[in-house]
Design brief:
Layout (H helix, E strand, L loop, with lengths): L16 E4 L7 E4 L10 E5 L4 E3 L5 E2 L4 E5 L4 E2 L5 E2 L5 E13 L3 E10 L2 E8 L10 E12 L6 E9 L3 E4 L6 E8 L1
Antiparallel strand pairs: 1-2, 3-6, 3-15, 4-14, 5-13, 7-8, 9-12, 9-14, 9-15, 10-11, 10-13
């Protein structure tokens, strides 16, 4: 095995891609300054104002403010869903701060794929000795997406003795994903 040491590798004048390797599966292409191109598409968004929800009802979270959306694949205005057009495995994460005007009896955060629960996180404080009126649930998964029709959404549920709310803010209720590979 040979070893190559250098300080600078650059493209030929007038080109924008640098390709290392040419005939096998170890080909790596650096696109316009991107490190690998494997972490795209990617997005992160958050809920910009509190969302009232019906008590004990799974409700789609209307995460409407994008922090970033590299390829414009997150719908932040109507369906509130991520539909990547690049097939692969995606790391998906979501956090929802759920609030009940009264003690919380149960709360859930769900990642939905194509309209069905893919992964859930739940908190049931009924048997705890301390009364609570808020919970913050984080949920994450690695999900294979087909690059055409697959989509992801976030749902929350809070059961309380009073009104229920999903609390807004970049640190409270957010949703994001990025491609990690084929």
């Amino acid at each position: 095995m040979s070893k190559l040491e250098t300080n600078t590798i650059d493209t030929i004048s007038g080109t924008t891609n640098l390709t290392i390797g040419s005939t096998n599966s170890s080909t790596v292409t650096f696109e316009n300054g991107a490190a690998t191109g494997h972490m795209y598409p990617a997005f992160e968004a958050y809920l910009s104002s509190d969302q009232s929800v019906s008590n004990a009802t799974a409700t789609k979270v209307q995460i409407n403010t994008e922090v970033f959306d590299t390829d414009n694949m997150y719908d932040n205005s109507s369906n509130y869903r991520f539909t990547p057009t690049v097939a692969g495995k995606y790391y998906v994460y979501a956090s929802i701060k759920l609030f009940g005007n009264g003690d919380i009896e149960a709360s859930n955060t769900h990642i939905y794929k194509n309209g069905s629960i893919y992964r859930g996180a739940a908190f049931d404080p009924v048997n705890t000795s301390n009364a609570m009126n808020a919970s913050n649930l984080f949920n994450a998964a690695t999900i294979s997406m087909n690059g055409s029709s697959d989509y992801l959404e976030i749902f929350g549920l809070v059961q309380s003795g009073g009104t229920t709310t999903l609390e807004a803010g970049t640190k409270n209720t957010f949703f994001g994903a990025y491609r990690i590979g084929a």
